[in-house]
């Protein structure tokens, strides 16, 4: 395959950005900008907290799948019409730019440090008799499920400010999840908050907004992460952010009105539920359009481009420990072993590793 001299810069090495980088690496000069040296299958991290060795397969060094491109391990801090600026002082020129910064998360720079962090979190869980989880979205629910199944003797208290769990799916799925958690002796407190400013290491007494006192040996904050777009708010794209900080894109996933800047994944305003398998589909559309635009060694401004059709129904699977899950399909909500069979055993890790061209099981350290 002939590699084109065009420069494609991809900002963000989550599932969306890494799929584009991998797809284009033999077609253009690719540069991936990410503050981590690795791609993390984000939802597998909760399993890695109860079984740290699980992270060996779900953390993939960018270099393992991006063998023919540049990697800059830093945050992007600005974009101009022609360059990306990074926190460590790089100014990278681009012909095409793909923004895939998803949600902001503060995780270590190296894969080995992240694996160490899983071990520390695991020690924290193992040494506690009672655990407070704050937040009843997918992260809080999946973490509660992992701990309840692997450590059935631990007392788990889950506090959620909303009237029901998992407010991104229907109430049927939420009700089933609540019953499942209660059947595992998880105490769920809805419509209550905890003043985070009072949190300190070693604190064992927590006060909820209803005046309840919770005693717990440790806590985990599982609150929604903010979108990682604040760095664009003073850039040439500042008017392309909506009121929630999402990047506005057209049906070809171009940032409004621009022919050479694209955005994909959770960071976009595409009207659909935010899911990794959809972020991957965005990435495939953009990679295919870019290949066509720059293909054959000559830029093709007039080539037809694929469009992306947003997912119209909310489809999601939330795992509940190693064997069960709750799933919302277009016309059906299911809980138990059947949806668990789809997701909970391997959490799609083997499948994603294969898609990235890696062995599903063998780990490269
Ligand atoms: C508990 C839970 C379970 C889930 N389960 C599933 C599931 O079963 N199936 C599924 O399909 N989806 C699932 N999801 C959703 C899925 O995690 C997201 O939709 C997906 O991770 C979005 O991918 P992304 O690449 O857009 O963003 P992210 O995964 O958020 O990646 C963004 C990347 O950008 C980088 N970045 C951020 N800021 C900058 C910057 N300034 N400069 C450079 N890089 C930057 C980050 O380091 C990161 O690498 C789940 C989510 C949660 C919370």
TrEMBL record:
Keywords: FAD, Flavoprotein, Oxidoreductase. InterPro entries: FAD/NAD-bd_sf (IPR036188), FAD/NAD-binding_dom (IPR023753). It comes from the Eukaryota. GO terms for molecular function: electron-transferring-flavoprotein dehydrogenase activity; flavin adenine dinucleotide binding. The keyword tRNA processing does not apply. Residues 6-272 form the FAD/NAD(P)-binding domain. The keyword Oxidoreductase applies. It holds the Pfam family Pyr_redox_2. One of its GO terms (cellular component) is cytoplasm. Belongs to the FAD-dependent oxidoreductase family. Putative FAD-dependent oxidoreductase. This is Apoptosis-inducing factor-like A. It comes from Mucuna pruriens. The gene is aifA.
């Amino acid at each position: 395959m002939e590699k084109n001299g065009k420069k494609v810069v991809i900002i963000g090495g989550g599932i969306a950005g890494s799929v584009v980088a991998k797809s284009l690496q033999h077609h253009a000069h690719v540069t991936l900008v990410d503050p981590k040296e690795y791609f993390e299958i984000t939802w597998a991290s909760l399993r890695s907290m109860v079984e740290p060795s699980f992270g060996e397969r779900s953390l993939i060094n960018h270099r393992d799948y991006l063998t023919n491109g540049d990697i800059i391990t830093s945050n992007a801090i600005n974009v101009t019409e022609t360059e990306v600026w990074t926190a460590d002082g790089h100014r990278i020129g681009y012909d095409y730019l793909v923004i895939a910064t998803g949600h902001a998360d503060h995780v270590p720079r190296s894969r080995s440090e992240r694996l160490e962090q899983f071990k520390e979190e695991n020690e924290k869980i193992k040494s506690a008799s009672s655990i407070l989880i704050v937040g009843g979205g997918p992260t809080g629910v999946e973490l509660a499920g992992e701990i309840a199944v692997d450590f059935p003797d631990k007392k788990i208290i889950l506090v959620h400010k909303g009237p029901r769990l998992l407010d991104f799916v229907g109430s049927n799925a939420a009700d089933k999840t609540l019953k499942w958690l209660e059947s595992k002796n998880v105490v769920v407190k809805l419509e209550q908050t905890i003043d985070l400013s009072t949190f300190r290491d070693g604190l064992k007494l927590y006060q909820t907004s209803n005046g309840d006192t919770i005693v717990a040996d440790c806590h985990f904050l599982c609150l929604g992460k903010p979108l990682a777009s604040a760095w664009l708010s003073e850039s040439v794209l500042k008017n392309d952010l909506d009121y929630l900080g999402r990047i506005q894109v057209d049906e070809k996933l171009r940032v409004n009105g621009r022919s050479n800047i694209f955005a994909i994944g959770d960071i976009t305003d595409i009207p659909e539920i935010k899911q990794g398998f959809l972020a991957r589909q965005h990435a495939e559309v953009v990679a295919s359009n870019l290949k066509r635009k720059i293909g054959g060694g000559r830029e093709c401004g007039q080539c037809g481009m694929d469009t992306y059709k947003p997912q119209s129904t909310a489809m999601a699977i939330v795992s509940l420990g190693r064997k069960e899950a709750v799933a919302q399909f277009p016309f059906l909500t299911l809980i138990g072993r059947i949806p668990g069979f789809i997701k909970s055993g391997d959490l799609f890790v083997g499948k994603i590793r294969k898609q990235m061209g890696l062995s599903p099981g063998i780990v490269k350290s």
